[in-house]
């Protein structure tokens, strides 16, 4: 079995997949790539998307697949390893999917909207409030409950949320003087425990001065630049 992860060190979507590979104990080859360099080879690997992550799998026989997108790759790797990222109970799994949509369709874009908004602007206040409310509703409904925001037994929601929670906790105090997890005690405890996970730490250890590098990379976002599609609110 051969697994390759095409990733970019700074990308939270790619870090989701990287964390999953570590947590599931799968052997893999990490390949750092510049997704902004849309070469013919990269577009072929990414199946025309030109974005990280991409998981490439081969069993050494006839079975081979390239899986772009963080959530699709998480699901694929979890199935491959017979993992427990999804709850076995159908009702709780349905609830997990609901909150996964909430993370991807509300929390993530509101984080980027707030990061990009001029300090003191109406957009800044609106996105800050929306982000805070989104995190609060997630915390109330999931932390310590069966649908599982649980750092002791990480599942789909933990892996999906953490890379963005890490960037919120680093970037928003620095650029916007706001600590989104400061008043979320249960979520704050979860965040601290996830940060101590060896599987999580393995995904940042390859980059020297990781936090400083992230601050530098996201500086254009904090000035209103960066990718536009990350601010899109899901219907």
TrEMBL record:
It holds the Pfam family GST_N_2. GO terms for molecular function: transferase activity. Keywords: Transferase. It comes from the Bacteria. Residues 1-85 form the GST N-terminal domain. InterPro entries: Glutathione-S-Trfase_C_sf (IPR036282), Glutathione_S-Trfase_N (IPR004045), GST_Omega/HSP26 (IPR050983), Thioredoxin-like_sf (IPR036249). One of its GO terms (cellular component) is cytoplasm. This is Glutathione S-transferase.
